[in-house]
Amino acid sequence: MSRPVPAVPIAELNARAEHVKLLDVQLLSDNWYVLRKVSFSLRRRDGQWQTLSREAYDRGNGAALLLFDPRRGTVVLTRQFRLPAFLNGCADGLLVEACAGLLDGDDPETCIRREAQEETGYRVRQPRKVFEAYMSPGSVTEKLHFFIAEYEPQDRVRAGGGLVNEGEDIEVIEMPLAEALAGIAGGAIQDGKTIMLLQHVALQQQFAIV
After folding, report:
1. What is the rounded CA–CA span in Å between residue 36 and residue 56?
2. Residue ranges of the alpha helices (H) in 99-163?
3. In degrees, to the nearest 5, what angle opens at C-alpha 203 toward C-alphas 196 and 171?
4. Separation of alpha carbons 13 and 150, rounded Å
5. Which positions ≥6 away from 179 have C-beta within 8 Å?
6. Residue 87 phi, psi dihedral angles, 5° rounding
7. Measured between alpha carbons, how far is 19 from 208 in angstroms, rounded to an integer?
């Protein structure tokens, strides 16, 4: 199981910026990933200091990849069960997503090559990093590294489906980019990282810079 990066010492964090001072960090849970309660003082824009307390969930950083075939206008996505989505209104808990995973100590490119083969079965030839983003900065520390890679049908070298010992049961889906974009508008695709990558490719196609 992936583990998050160890917490940076309070003194080191406090040396980074003058407008925030960490006061205390409490470990609330270390069962799956790490949940901490952090007390800190924040200097507001009017110069006044305000003491606050927030929880931060640390699951490590990750990478996401959209496989795109510009010749056929298709993308490779996955479908799998996501418990938090199921708990929050997704009727069957199945989300359509771009392949992604936690870094597990690897650099982002190595990670996404590994995850693509495990999840989709496709060998990634030339991944291109397009941006980084904090996905839920109000409560989760995770930063994702986003990649695009072209593929051809012969690049599928295994079945994919994920790792059974990690509880993965992943369906591999190939569809036209236009259908995926329509799926965003129609609610069939609701995963944030996937929407970002699909729209990025759509914009690049529009301006003919892929």
Report:
1. 5
2. 108-120
3. 45
4. 40
5. none
6. -70, -20
7. 43
Q: Give the separation between CA 121 and CA 115, rounded to whole angstroms.
A: 9
Distance between CA atoms of residues 99 and 44, nearest Å: 40
Average pLDDT over residues 154-165: 88
Token pair for 192: 């944030």
pTM for the whole thing?
0.91
- pLDDT tens per residue, range 114-136: 999 999 999 999 999 999 999 99
User: What is the gyration radius of the CA atoms in the chain, in angstroms?
Assistant: 19
d(CA 128, CA 62): 15
Instruction: Please write the tens of the pLDDT for every residue from 81-91.
Output: 999 999 999 99
Structure tokens at 87: 């708990």
- Which amino acid, one-letter code, is at 197? L
- What sections of the chain are H helices per DSSP? 10-14, 83-87, 108-120, 177-186, 192-206
Residue 118: half-sphere exposure toward Cβ, Cα within 13 Å: 19
